[in-house]
Amino acid sequence: MMKKLTKTIKTEWPPPKQPPIEMYDDFTMFGRMPLDKNLWYFQEKYLGNMKSTPITKEEIQFKITARALRWKMSTYGIVEEDLLQAALIKYSQGVQDKIGLDFGSSDPWITSIALLNGASKMYMFDYIKTVSLDDEIETLTQLQLYRIWHQQLTIMDENKLRESSLTRSKKGRKNHSLMFDFAISFSSIEHSGLGRFGDPLNPYGDLEAMAQMWCVMKPGAILFLNVPFHQNGSSLVWNAHRIYGYNRLQHLTANWKILQEFNSCQLTNGLMCDGGFAVLWVLERV
Prior knowledge:
Layout: H1 24-27, H2 57-68, H3 78-90, E1 99-103, H4 109-116, E2 121-125, E3 137-140, H5 142-155, H6 158-163, E4 167-168, E5 174-175, E6 180-186, H7 205-215, E7 217-226, E8 235-237, E9 241-243, H8 246-252, E10 256-263, H9 264-267, E11 279-285
Parallel strand pairs: 1-2, 1-6, 2-3, 6-7
Antiparallel strand pairs: 4-5, 7-11, 8-9, 10-11
């Protein structure tokens, strides 16, 4: 699973406008995640590219201030930002003075909220390469994420994983004896494997991405997870994203313990309770 991060896999570009016939049943779970008739097609080749502007201390401070004042700070809505804030506050013991992973975002709004809520250091991982000029934030490529996992596999037992932290050698080179105390993935996993961002087509890309996060997190670590959800069931909106019903969600959260669900229906006192309301799950790595 993790070794896939080290390989350059030839991808089809532009991505197909329909799921390939040989993968159709796997993408649609043999009809249990039906293809939405309203296609939403994208060509956004992020994989391997470099973001044009670096992350700066000033940008992070602005976003932290915006969140403190409850100003909109992302491409999502205030309610979605409130969901994450509420979950981080409720599970603050797993965040404060801890090292976190922002999985699947090149915009540091998630990382900023984590730092606002007491995280000591954040690492950002995404398809697109990003440079950080802020000492509290580091960015990871696919190869670097693999190395973190591989070093743990070879030199640390389960007890040492609980005590591991990022250290530096005398020469100043990073020694990736690191496992994450918590992770946040917000509206990211649902895209994996659909080819939208230049990634290889993979019907199980979302499940593999969850497994990759599991591999670099400490036992007992907390994952704050958001994906599109609908009470009426799962669907595939090609090639934009997956929408999760309970039948796909149970596979997505395998090997995790669900601690709590935060949703927009609760947060807005019943004002946002349609079938596709926003949901954030708090999961524990088991």
